[in-house]
Amino acid sequence: MGSLSRQAFFQELGSGCLLPTVQQGLEQVWQLLLICLVCRLSWRLGLPNFLKHLSTVVGGFYTLYLFFELHMVWVVLLSLLCYLILFLCRHSSSRGPFLSITILIYLLLGELHMMDTTTWHKMRGSQMVVAMKAVSLAFDLDKGIVDKVPSPVEFMGYIYFVGTVIFGPWISFNSYMDAVESRKLSVSWFMKSVISCVKSQLCLLISNCVAPYLFPYFIPVFGNKLLRKWLQAYENSLSFHFSNYFVSFLGETTTTLAGAGFTEEKDNLKWDMTIAKPLYVEFPRSMVEVVTSWNLPMSRWLNTYVFRKALRYGSFTAIIMTYTASALLHGLSFHIGAVLLTLGFITYIEHVLRKRLSAILNACVLSKRCPSDCKHRHKKELWVYLINGTFSMLALLHLTYLGSDFRPQDGVASHTIQKWTQLSWTSHWLTFALWVFYRLIL
Amino acid sequence: MRSISSCGALLSVYYPQIFLILTSGSYLALSSVVALGANIICNKIPGLAPRQRAICQSRPDAIIIIGEGAQLGINECQYQFRYGRWNCSALGERTVFGQELRVGSKEAAFTYAITAAGVAHAVTAACSQGNLSHCGCDREKQGYHDQEEGWKWGGCSADVKYGVEFSRRFVDAREIKKNARRLMNLHNNEAGRKVLEERMKLECKCHGVSGSCTTKTCWTTLPKFREIGYVLKERYTTALEVEAVRATRFRQPSFLRLKQSRGYIKPTDTDLVFLERSPNYCEEDTVTGSAGTRGRLCNHTSPLTDGCNLMCCGRGHNTHQYTRVWQCNCKFQWCCFVKCNTCSEKTEVFTCK
């Protein structure tokens, strides 16, 4: 009878969850994919650049309307405000900081005054991408990487680039201008698009239909009361992870389909855009690796435009400022702010501890994998693997803890605190213990 | 050598047939055991109406769920009325749905509603968890698009309609007499199920850049059954007295009418209805099925229904005193023993005379 109900469960899961999820997944994005493809094909027609920029603006506006309807005006307002600031400060050399402050004020005002939480939460992703694009452009202008303020149509084309406007990711202005030149259609381009699309639907299925039922249906582990709490936390965490991968692979699909996301090296073109590395998050070496693998373009953006500029205040301050910037980009959510700040402390302490251990033990136990020519004496001993394995298990535990309460209608501070209390503030205590240990071996 | 070789050949020829015989034998034995078990189980359950017994035999996998659902209803009933004179207990015949209340009172109305809702809730939950064959996630939700909200159904929506329909077929099947009480019971059963349907919740999962909510997949889920209990308790306090109306003389009663109204006003779908005034539940009475309050715990300082004055119906209460003794204020004395004081506490427990 037990095995029968399990078989019945899987049958019902197939017809009741897998099928409708795929159906809804494709139904929601097919128009976006189609517009990306049309944009790509039209760029191959030999249009003048003016019309290319204009066509992607039109496509971008249409997809924004598809997803946000009239609320898209907030995204439009933000982009207009950004261009106004860039234009007015075109002779200044501090456009980056000034534009950053302006965007921050706009986002805070939007969050606090202009609209309800649900709507803001829905389009937060697009706002974030627009903000990142504008800030990166401003800083690149300051540094001369971009030599002059782009024309309005170029700027709007960059901001509303149909491949990245809804699901991201951030791309630099120069990448966009490269894409406008419009590379040839090829099998590898098409295969990249299709494979990313399939991967995104697969991740959506795992997020909706596998993760929530992982224990005991897929993995027959029942556990006692304490273990069940952690198993359930892991299910929630995994579901959230794969939701992120769904969006990441979808972003890869739209970006590639629209003609961006390639690298070119001596006439060797590769369609190799990568947003997330799921394997590095699900089987982590360290929390540092998790953080960078979660969203590579965002990681690059934060590193280039926040961390390096804040490094003159010290590495700890730079890390905290980076996580603060990340939290602010996500909007005024106590939950996300708390998670990101906790994550900041966890990664910093792990990083400095492993650095210290690496020096003391002369072994490859750093947060990041050593290159093959590193000068550590101990590389492949058993105890080196044990130390790295322990940190990997710790990272898994941290991920379970931090991801355990990502749910749609959160936003209440007490909910996050309640969830962490249920899990006995384990990650916080462990991080504190590691910090004490680190101070002891200084 | 030749002998050994031929022996091996013989084994290889015979083995598949032997395996087949064993397998089919086990299968036949297994299926007959299952069928036999179902019949025994169904016949041993007390108080099943003939149609209910037939459903039990045709769907043995569901009968366990139904029992759990009925128990869920009874437990919730006892929780909601734990401080009252009537605490969801009754004299009379013991059935899978608890003891039946003979008087067509407000309490009977609540009992029938909460039990029907409990069965529907348990069946719906079993469907969602894949524990019942022939049902699963709600297929009507596939492809549904709510224009205003902008989200679409996905995930596994609890199929409450199946649970409600199953509850209707099984629970209502026990009403076999053609009388006013039947109409009352059917109405209250349906009211309980309607409350469950109204209270289904919508859950969504967000998908978007960094956890934003650019797009969603949504599904419906069951509420906690305690919530249903609270709602029905409220309906209980505003239950309506009704009487049965015959369409013509000499016919069976055909519908219910509000007793206080001057016309033929019917109760609404979610009202609880009763035919007779409640007994006071003070004394044990086999005629009304009242269990009485003798021996019930009460709170002698409370002015509410759990207070001794009301609970005991003026008969007074007995006081039982208990003394608890334990070691306290232990201190270590140098050298070398621990000395403790003895503390005691008196508590009083009150029960109705």
TrEMBL record, chain A:
<dbReference type="GO" id="GO:0060027">
    <property type="term" value="P:convergent extension involved in gastrulation"/>
</dbReference>
<feature type="transmembrane region" description="Helical">
    <location>
        <begin position="310"/>
        <end position="328"/>
    </location>
</feature>
<feature type="transmembrane region" description="Helical">
    <location>
        <begin position="423"/>
        <end position="441"/>
    </location>
</feature>
<dbReference type="InterPro" id="IPR049941">
    <property type="entry name" value="LPLAT_7/PORCN-like"/>
</dbReference>
<dbReference type="Pfam" id="PF03062">
    <property type="entry name" value="MBOAT"/>
</dbReference>
<keyword id="KW-0256">Endoplasmic reticulum</keyword>
<keyword id="KW-1133">Transmembrane helix</keyword>
<keyword id="KW-0812">Transmembrane</keyword>
<feature type="transmembrane region" description="Helical">
    <location>
        <begin position="155"/>
        <end position="173"/>
    </location>
</feature>
<keyword id="KW-0808">Transferase</keyword>
<dbReference type="InterPro" id="IPR004299">
    <property type="entry name" value="MBOAT_fam"/>
</dbReference>
<keyword id="KW-0472">Membrane</keyword>
<dbReference type="GO" id="GO:0005789">
    <property type="term" value="C:endoplasmic reticulum membrane"/>
</dbReference>
<feature type="transmembrane region" description="Helical">
    <location>
        <begin position="334"/>
        <end position="353"/>
    </location>
</feature>
<dbReference type="GO" id="GO:1990698">
    <property type="term" value="F:palmitoleoyltransferase activity"/>
</dbReference>
<feature type="transmembrane region" description="Helical">
    <location>
        <begin position="382"/>
        <end position="403"/>
    </location>
</feature>
<keyword id="KW-0012">Acyltransferase</keyword>
<protein>
    <submittedName>
        <fullName>Porcupine O-acyltransferase</fullName>
        <ecNumber>2.3.1.250</ecNumber>
    </submittedName>
</protein>
<dbReference type="GO" id="GO:0061355">
    <property type="term" value="P:Wnt protein secretion"/>
</dbReference>
<feature type="transmembrane region" description="Helical">
    <location>
        <begin position="98"/>
        <end position="115"/>
    </location>
</feature>
<feature type="transmembrane region" description="Helical">
    <location>
        <begin position="59"/>
        <end position="86"/>
    </location>
</feature>
Automatic annotation (TrEMBL), chain B:
<feature type="transmembrane region" description="Helical">
    <location>
        <begin position="18"/>
        <end position="42"/>
    </location>
</feature>
<keyword id="KW-1015">Disulfide bond</keyword>
<dbReference type="GO" id="GO:0048513">
    <property type="term" value="P:animal organ development"/>
</dbReference>
<dbReference type="GO" id="GO:0046330">
    <property type="term" value="P:positive regulation of JNK cascade"/>
</dbReference>
<dbReference type="Pfam" id="PF00110">
    <property type="entry name" value="wnt"/>
</dbReference>
<comment type="similarity">
    <text>Belongs to the Wnt family.</text>
</comment>
<keyword id="KW-0217">Developmental protein</keyword>
<dbReference type="GO" id="GO:0009888">
    <property type="term" value="P:tissue development"/>
</dbReference>
<dbReference type="GO" id="GO:0045165">
    <property type="term" value="P:cell fate commitment"/>
</dbReference>
<keyword id="KW-0879">Wnt signaling pathway</keyword>
<dbReference type="GO" id="GO:0030182">
    <property type="term" value="P:neuron differentiation"/>
</dbReference>
<keyword id="KW-1133">Transmembrane helix</keyword>
<dbReference type="GO" id="GO:0005125">
    <property type="term" value="F:cytokine activity"/>
</dbReference>
<keyword id="KW-0812">Transmembrane</keyword>
<dbReference type="InterPro" id="IPR013300">
    <property type="entry name" value="Wnt7"/>
</dbReference>
<keyword id="KW-0449">Lipoprotein</keyword>
<dbReference type="InterPro" id="IPR018161">
    <property type="entry name" value="Wnt_CS"/>
</dbReference>
<keyword id="KW-0272">Extracellular matrix</keyword>
<dbReference type="GO" id="GO:0005109">
    <property type="term" value="F:frizzled binding"/>
</dbReference>
<dbReference type="InterPro" id="IPR043158">
    <property type="entry name" value="Wnt_C"/>
</dbReference>
<keyword id="KW-0325">Glycoprotein</keyword>
<comment type="function">
    <text>Ligand for members of the frizzled family of seven transmembrane receptors that functions in the canonical Wnt/beta-catenin signaling pathway. Required for normal fusion of the chorion and the allantois during placenta development. Required for central nervous system (CNS) angiogenesis and blood-brain barrier regulation.</text>
</comment>
